């Protein structure tokens, strides 16, 4: 801390310890509040909670000349306010010497000789009573460590208990635990140096605190439900798990019925998508689904189409990957369906002949794989910085963000250390679990959380949002750092960056021209459309008049004398809303991505990195899994027959003739259900051995398969083992 010089991180005693990388500044919040020569001259979103950086520097220089009367070291920024008292001290030293700091009005502080004390009637009996917070005994004496309730005769408390209670309850719920008095009790406690933060109670802010009171909708509403056990059947962590619409929550789908992966969160029902379409979002998907539904029966079937992420494949879409490369075509003569889940703003529907479509898709597929291989090699080069020193992160999967943030901010964390993950909310560690599997699961959960967090905005292709609280807490920097660490340490890529966000990071915001699809705010998008599609000068002027206040606040007002002026105006609004508005978050995010040299490599290889940052991972296919694993076998094993069984089984899984998925197979063997951008280390292998059941050796990424006489025996053993192993792990 620049004010007290201590590295202690104890929020209960010294307030939150905050580090601002852009200012090269670390400070305890209470040290800043109580310093005698500094005031909040800025707005709350300026500097450090209104304390301007320039003022903080001046206060540090002033304090450097003052010696602490307690520890005798320089830097004492706090002085006693009692007349003629010249004592100065650091905040932690004052706490140690039992000084009083009043967190109210002028934030006065009193030394150990002039501090206020509670007055007790002489006739009041002395003895011991019970602290009504911790229930331990407390002496009824006017001491620094003991406080008496001003509203109840026999209510005594430990100072430490009261401070913890105040931090937890906040200003709205902190009151006398005996009589429930609030005003008189808070006034006395503030006078005696108890800090009562202006926030809601911690139990009100707890995530999912009232989850038991919620009733979840569990029904598959897709018109052609594929589940043989019915629309109400729900099996968590399987392809028959029901996902609810993220917008209304009153419609659902099985993962398999909408071709979704288990970690995908952003599914919308057709009714909500139609509402978005009317407001300008999902315009391309709307055209597609309407065209399909009109060909069906001439009416709009709201619950017929699957998720916009993956158009339904025709029955003839499966190809034998052993005979020819897979070419997947959508029904109704649409363009070939990409294995990449493209963001909405990057999707284009084209009308090509089937032969040309297949040829183009095959070439594009080879190009994408080449770029992903390039990214893999770059990340492997960056990973050479990682040493063997281990940093353990204790992670609560149910509170992934806070536990990850705490881990990344701990003093001994370094991006160049080997990261080891321990999930603290798991009662018993799975026998098949490994450090690599835990680490991949952690990064997977973290990327999903980031995608759905308030740091980003947009439906599928995300831009940075403007969250003032996140800017104050430096969360954009932490998010960029986490993404960089995930890429280099073998985790998944985010896959949700919009092209505009990616270009801002790579080429600089001044060289990027945003599009209407980048605007997530429905009202702002509607305003832009009113101006963009004005067909006369009078209608343009009317549109400008209707949104005059918005344009003035954005600094986009300009004289309009001709209809063509609307293009410049639209461009100004887009640049302000998408880029200039988030200048501070973007710069902080870029600084975080510089961790381990990731941003520098992005700028050197933009085309390659856009495939992993702007697109979801390639959808697993039988061909992908087949190419991923190298087959080994002992000399007494028929390698060809074993390989035939293996490849045939992959085809059955891909065509849906199995209870497991390709992701399940990959998870069983490696602990990951997707291929990370850096690839696997060591590379996955298959061994055919004389064993009863298959074994997934995740430490070596090796799948040990049994030698069987018939294909049916091979398939039954695979499905029995994989399904039961993963079920036990989930439990």
From TrEMBL:
<dbReference type="InterPro" id="IPR000569">
    <property type="entry name" value="HECT_dom"/>
</dbReference>
<dbReference type="GO" id="GO:0008270">
    <property type="term" value="F:zinc ion binding"/>
</dbReference>
<dbReference type="Pfam" id="PF00632">
    <property type="entry name" value="HECT"/>
</dbReference>
<dbReference type="InterPro" id="IPR034732">
    <property type="entry name" value="EPHD"/>
</dbReference>
<keyword id="KW-0862">Zinc</keyword>
<feature type="domain" description="PHD-type">
    <location>
        <begin position="1"/>
        <end position="115"/>
    </location>
</feature>
<dbReference type="Pfam" id="PF13771">
    <property type="entry name" value="zf-HC5HC2H"/>
</dbReference>
<dbReference type="InterPro" id="IPR013083">
    <property type="entry name" value="Znf_RING/FYVE/PHD"/>
</dbReference>
<dbReference type="InterPro" id="IPR051188">
    <property type="entry name" value="PHD-type_Zinc_Finger"/>
</dbReference>
<dbReference type="Pfam" id="PF26054">
    <property type="entry name" value="PHD_G2E3"/>
</dbReference>
<keyword id="KW-0479">Metal-binding</keyword>
<dbReference type="InterPro" id="IPR059102">
    <property type="entry name" value="PHD_PHF7/G2E3-like"/>
</dbReference>
<dbReference type="InterPro" id="IPR035983">
    <property type="entry name" value="Hect_E3_ubiquitin_ligase"/>
</dbReference>
<dbReference type="InterPro" id="IPR042013">
    <property type="entry name" value="PHF7/G2E3_ePHD"/>
</dbReference>
<keyword id="KW-0863">Zinc-finger</keyword>
<keyword id="KW-0808">Transferase</keyword>
<keyword id="KW-0833">Ubl conjugation pathway</keyword>
<protein>
    <submittedName>
        <fullName>G2/M phase-specific E3 ubiquitin-protein ligase</fullName>
    </submittedName>
</protein>
<keyword id="KW-0539">Nucleus</keyword>
<dbReference type="InterPro" id="IPR011011">
    <property type="entry name" value="Znf_FYVE_PHD"/>
</dbReference>
<comment type="pathway">
    <text>Protein modification; protein ubiquitination.</text>
</comment>
<dbReference type="GO" id="GO:0004842">
    <property type="term" value="F:ubiquitin-protein transferase activity"/>
</dbReference>
<dbReference type="InterPro" id="IPR001965">
    <property type="entry name" value="Znf_PHD"/>
</dbReference>
<dbReference type="GO" id="GO:0005634">
    <property type="term" value="C:nucleus"/>
</dbReference>
